[in-house]
Design goal:
Layout lengths: L2 E6 L3 H6 L5 E11 L4 H9 L13 E5 L15 H4 L2 H6 L2 E6 L5 H10 L2 E4 L4 H6 L1 E8 L8 E16 L2 E2 L2
Parallel strand pairs: 1-2, 2-3, 3-4, 4-5
Antiparallel strand pairs: 2-7, 5-7, 6-7, 7-8
């Protein structure tokens, strides 16, 4: 099976070419956030103050993880605090979520509306940490490792688990 390298932020053309079961290496700029920070970002989207953050989500990727000195590793994307933020973040421009766990059918159907996908990453913190080129806190630094970070990555290995209404079985 071919392993493709795709670079974030993504174009609609790249996203349209992905299908459930594809193995990809994600490079480029991605965002890292989880339970504590993503609901806060969604609140800013909903109250119209998100532009004040200066964060551009168009074609972006959110990796459900904390950023700590021990490295990065996926957390469960199907937690209510995370999966519940996906509709608003997707509408705001995010086109890929990286994490682990099975999502609700409604969430997968919503991705199709925006040409967005969900990819799973095996919890291999040491490997992923070696692929992080740089990290910068962009929002809510008081949350420490659970703040919203920008990561520059090279070759994050993952499997497309949901795309265009289809799920990996």
């Amino acid at each position: 099976m071919e392993i493709r390298t795709i670079t974030a932020p993504f174009t609609d053309e790249v996203l349209s070419s992905l299908k459930a079961g594809d193995i990809v290496n994600v490079s480029g700029t991605i965002y890292a956030g989880r339970d504590a920070v993503l609901p806060r970002l969604v609140k800013k989207i909903e109250d119209g103050t998100f532009a004040e953050t200066g964060i551009d989500l168009q074609g972006g990727v959110i990796f459900h993880t904390a950023v700590s000195r021990a490295g990065v590793g996926p957390t469960s994307s199907n937690k209510a605090e995370l999966e519940g933020t996906m509709p608003q973040l997707t509408a705001a421009g995010i086109r890929m979520f990286l994490g682990k766990g099975e999502l609700k059918k409604e969430t997968i159907e919503m991705f199709d509306k925006y040409n967005a996908v969900y990819a799973v990453i095996a919890p291999v913190t040491a490997l992923l940490n070696s692929k992080v080129l740089s990290q910068k806190c962009l929002f809510a630094p008081e949350l420490g490792m659970e703040a919203f970070y920008e990561l520059k990555v090279d070759g994050f290995p993952c499997i497309i688990a949901a795309a265009h209404g289809e799920i990996l079985k």
